[in-house]
Amino acid sequence: MIDAIKLYLSDLGRPAKREEIIEGIIASGFRPGKEGATRGNIKKSITMYLEGRASSKNELKEIGDLIGLATWEDNRFQLTQ
Predict the structure, then answer these.
(1) CB-based contacts of 7: which residues, under 8 Å, 6+ apart?
(2) Prediction pTM value
(3) Over the Cα atoms of the chain, what is R_g?
(4) Tens digits of per-residue pLDDT, 40-57?
(5) Contacts of range 74-80, beta carbons closer than 8 Å, 24 or more positions apart
(6) Average pLDDT over residues 29-35
């Protein structure tokens, strides 16, 4: 799941709110395993990666309500209209 999240953010080119990431991954048709991508399992995966409880630690970071790649500079996490 982390690969789908990272790919979505990389393609988007900017941090996004959790709900936007979930919608984007579902819209892309990503289907891990038998069940496919559900809102619940994407949301849980994002939380796990942010909290460092997943195997791919330090891949994402959250500033305010925006989530992005850990390698991105903090000033990139400014909400733009």
Answers:
(1) none
(2) 0.84
(3) 12
(4) 888 988 988 888 776 667
(5) 76/14, 76/15, 77/15, 80/14
(6) 66
